[in-house]
Amino acid sequence: MGSNRVRFDGPSRRGFLALSLAAAVPPAVWPSRSGAAIEPHLGDDGLYKQDWFLQSFLELPEDLAEATAAGKRFALLWEQRGCPYCHDLHRINLADATTSAFIRARFAVLQLNLWGDREVTDFDGEKLREKEFARKYRINFTPTLQFFPETVAEMKGKKGADAEVARMPGYFRPFHFISMFEYVWEKRYAHQDFQRYILEKSAARRESSLQ
Q: 64-110: per-residue pLDDT in tens?
């Protein structure tokens, strides 16, 4: 099946996407924060960290295989030092205990640095520094989340970003953020684009709130 990636080519279109997604669901149906807030810590590289992020040797084929063996989906999270939207991602979205628990139980999330120099082994075996890998995958801004198929075999013959099943291109507000993970977990990308999924989900929430 083809990928239904939510993406645009440049950061100039990011604001339009964020406004469009925010408008799709009014604040009344955003999920409320629950449980104690989860505090991230700031790493030496200037990126906020969650204690459940994947600790990896940056061998992506192995990371994907291990995630699948554990019954999880594999995702890459791109951030950079000083990114205010990355700050919001950690201080708002991932600070919600329910959201973090859902993701932690179902996804192996590997954090990468948009300007980093660590060596990453791509799914096709190519070894690149993080910043070179980012260019290969057309990562233009942060935060960006990439979601991949369940097996390396499903990615054969696909290059770079074409191997993704979905992408979160920028900061999404809480409702859209957790919905993206649900969209991937439910494998809706196989037959439905994310915009349609989010409209159906928001409509169902409105209907439920009126009952």
A: 999 999 999 999 999 999 999 999 999 999 999 999 999 999 999 99
Contact 26, 187 (CB under 8 A): no
Contacts of 99 (CB under 8 A, 6+ apart): 31, 93, 174, 177, 178
| Residue from 93, 100, 75 nearest 176 by CA | 93
End-to-end CA distance of the chain: 37
CB 177 within 8 A of CB 106: no
For 11-24+39-210, CATH gives 3.40.30.10
Strand partners, 73: 107
User: What's the whole-model pTM score?
Assistant: 0.81
Q: Could you give the 3-state DSSP secondary structure of residue 158?
A: coil
Contacts of 55 by beta carbon, 8 Å cutoff, 6+ apart: none
Q: How far apart are CA 28 and CA 65, in angstroms?
A: 40
Residue 165 in contact with residue 182, Cβ under 8 Å?
A: no
Q: In angstroms, how far is CA 45 from the centroid of its own chain? A: 20
Rg of the chain over Cα atoms, rounded to whole angstroms, equals 17
Q: Please name the helix (run of DSSP H) or strand (run of DSSP E) that holds residue 76, with its range, or none.
A: strand 73-79
**CA-based torsion, 167, 173, 175, 181: positive or negative:** positive
Q: How would you write 176-197 as a 3-class SS string?
A: HHHHHHHHHHCCHHHCCCHHHH
How would you classify residue 151: left for phi > 0, otherwise alpha for psi between -120 and 50, otherwise beta?
beta
Where along the chain do its domains lie?
Answer: 11-24+39-210
- Tell me how far apart the alpha carbons of residues 112 and 78 are, in angstroms, rounded to a whole number: 5
